[in-house]
Every structure is written in structure tokens, then in C-alpha cells.
Amino acid sequence: MTIERLVDEHQRAKVASPATALEWQFIQAEGIQSAVATLSFERQRPGEHYVLAVSLAPAGHFWGPARHDPEEDPPPDTGVGPPREIPGLGLRARREFFGMGPGGSGHGLTFTTQDGRHDVRIAVSELLPENVTGPEVDLEAFARRIAARYDAQSPGSDPP
User: pTM, whole model, 2 decimals?
Assistant: First the structure.
């Protein structure tokens, strides 16, 4: 399976609403394949950015028994904010928050494919000036489309 097949032109067109001109590139490094989209805008300060990354790695890379440390687990759901676990997406799925601060954030979700062979992480990192509105991305809906596409293209499945 390749990231180019999972995040093809059709999937890229449906990622953000309203239709946003994201510039995509595909990267492969250390066994991880990524589709990385950036939003073009006139920067007012260094460090301003909008990046959406979809990464495909061997199962257990983004989480798994070898990498699991209970000390790093987030606190249990409190009912405030979105739930961390996402039922019905692959073998397991969770929302993640990498950081939040004035004007920016890093968040996403990670899931293991239904066949247990790959982890997929979709992450957004943004620090935008007040006059720039980032795209509205429904990460869960996007992840479900990627999971369905993966399942349809896995060995033994007919291509979509």
C-alpha cells in the first residue's frame, strides 16, 4: 500500500471545506510514507504555518505495546471536549492533542488499519495570523474515507 493510493487526487479534493488550495507533496523517510499539505498565505511573522500531514507506517509505529508508556497516557475522558477514543475506525483509534497556545495548535488522530498491518496518523499543525482562516478539516470523516479506501485496496479486495 502506498500513501499516494490512499490520499489520491479525489481524497485530497475532499479533505477541506470550503475547497481550499492546499499544496501537497509526498515524502518517504525511515519506513514512513507521508502526504503533506501546506496552506499558502502571506506570513506576517516567522513560524506562521498551516500543515496537514497524513502518514502511513507499519503497525505499532505511532503506538503499540513496544511504545506504550502508561505514564504518558492522557487523563481519562472527562466529558469536556471531544472523546479521545473513536469507535468503529480500524482496530483502534484515538484523537490526539500535541499542543495548544496563543493562535495555534497541533492536533490529529491515529488509527490502526482493520487488517492490523499499518498505523495511519492524520495531524494538523497551525499557527495563523488573525487575518487568515485555515481550512475546516473534519479529521474523523477524512480518516474514515482513508480507512475505507485502504480496506478496498488491501490484498484480496477489488480496487475501487
Answer: 0.82
Per-residue pLDDT band for 63 (boundaries 50, 70, 90) equals: confident
Q: Which helix (H) or strand (E) holds 141?
A: helix 139-153
Contact at 8 Å (CB) between 58 and 31? yes
Please, what's the b/e burial string for 130-151 (b: 16 or more CB within 10 A of its CB; e: otherwise)?
eeeebbebebbebbbbbbebbe
Q: Residue 69: which residues within 8 A CB-CB, separation 6 or more?
A: none
Instruction: Give yes or no for a contact between 95 and 83, defined as CB atoms under 8 angstroms apart.
Output: yes
Specify if 79 maps to a domain.
Answer: yes
Beta strand 32-39 with 104-112: parallel, antiparallel or unpaired?
unpaired
The domain total for the chain is 1
Write out pLDDT tens, residues 21-51: 789 999 999 999 999 999 988 899 999 999 9
* Sign of CA pseudo-dihedral 82, 107, 112, 90: positive
160 domain residue, yes or no: no
Is the distance from CB of 87 to CB of 64 less than 8 angstroms?
A: no
Residue 159 maps to a domain: no
131: containing domain: 3-153
Q: Is residue 158 part of a domain?
A: no
Cell 508508556 sits on residue: 69
